[in-house]
């Protein structure tokens, strides 16, 4: 039986997208399904570079169609940067393997500085390379500094002819082995401070571009490369000064959203495989899925996965409706990166507790999922970095709402061009939000939504009466726990906003908020135990522990949805 809330390769047809998008997504699924599970598994274990997938993408002009903005599409009506269909492709690629998603993801990142640039020649070159089937790379991080772009050692020396000579290394750069265009961040050797930053386009095939090695033991190629006196022509320069810094951060704003959909795809495939295995296995004379703890773990995994999808689908609408006067997406973006990907880890852990040793077997998809799911919370900024970013939005979100026009569901065939003119990467603390309580009020009749709302209101009361003092505000360990409590409120809001468009069953919504009540209580307990927590804050934490509203019949109905996944999908061998 097919669950309408989960991606199913055999039944997938996104009717809300245009015909070309549907055809390309279907072609992508068919390529993987016809290739089969054995090839998927073997190429993963042999760490085989996925040239066959890139050949397919080139033939279909997949990346060219999905990643070329309309303005650069040479009147091709199908080319645009459409977050809805990009999210759909990202989920599909994650479903079949992180490596296939990764080459797409770093192409997205590599294009970010180009599409933000006013350099018409560089834009035209990028569009042409995409048409030829090339992938791109994003040369930001360095081995000594990570993604600390303030400390870049990629140095550009003026050549006296309007260009530069670039020398330095970059580390952890996906696609760096084959990228037709690498967007590289560096600084001028003759200019101090932010005015010296430069983003420029390099070519991995140039003789002065030296590929050092693959820094990971995986199917994907995550390169270390060095530029040795690399000639940077004036037409290669994408951004200079503070604009280069902004381009780096704004590119990550666009690209890191894809981590949530990759996580969702991985979890969906793993869920089909795990439930099918568990439901067909008999131990001690009983079907494994008859054990109460197994049912609880699988039900929790399913509810967490659906919540991941609901939040991410709704976040797409905020991205697509964003503009200079509505930048709420800048909160929901680190939420998808931090919260959804860590939820993905929890889903895999719950499934693995059930299938146990089966999760190690080499011929399963699960074996790959269990390894790869760990990477997503650690890419494009760690969980802690994104949680600290989320905290910047907390005062305005909780205490100073202002009216905003309703954000509709956005699956229209439109170009999301604002993403490439986001402007200066600052002012996050000034962004205003609509009243989060409205989404909760609309579902106050759902028992666990109402119970979680008590906890959310309690968080507001805590921050109003016992806000972190100056010492606590410098204690990131303390603040991160507060951030987790806040993140749950934001997470619940978008889940509720997406419940009606998704046609979510009230039982399943109640089960999702059963989880959120438990999660809030867990973080409150953690806050209680922090060394920096005051007596008043500790008392608040204990007072806001809640048990979810238990309904055995509701949970049994949700369990049946999980049991129906057994045998629902298995990849062709």
Automatic annotation (TrEMBL):
Keywords: FAD, Flavoprotein
Residue ranges of every copy of the Acyl-CoA dehydrogenase/oxidase C-terminal domain listed in the record: 245-392
Domain of life: Bacteria
Name of the protein: Acyl-CoA dehydrogenase
Matching SUPFAM superfamilies: Acyl-CoA dehydrogenase C-terminal domain-like, Acyl-CoA dehydrogenase NM domain-like
One Pfam short name: Acyl-CoA_dh_1
Taxonomic classification: Bacteria, Bacillati, Actinomycetota, Actinomycetes, Micromonosporales
Record InterPro entries: Acyl-CoA_Oxase/DH_mid-dom_sf, AcylCo_DH-like_C, AcylCo_DH/oxidase_C, AcylCoA_DH/oxidase_NM_dom_sf
Entry GO terms, CC: plasma membrane
Biological source species: Micromonospora humi
GO MF term set: acyl-CoA dehydrogenase activity
Family the entry assigns: Belongs to the acyl-CoA dehydrogenase family.
